[in-house]
Amino acid sequence: MRLSQALTDAGRPHQLLALPGVTHMLPGGNREKLMALELEFFRRELA
């Protein structure tokens, strides 16, 4: 949430992916999928 706020304050477009009921420990292979989405976001939006 702090990153989202900082990006909003800086006028940078971004997306927020809500994962209801999920903590930092993602089940199964979902962690890798989420990390790939995060990396794609950083490359696209902050390059």
Automatic annotation (TrEMBL):
This is Peptidase S9 prolyl oligopeptidase catalytic domain-containing protein. It comes from Streptomyces caledonius.
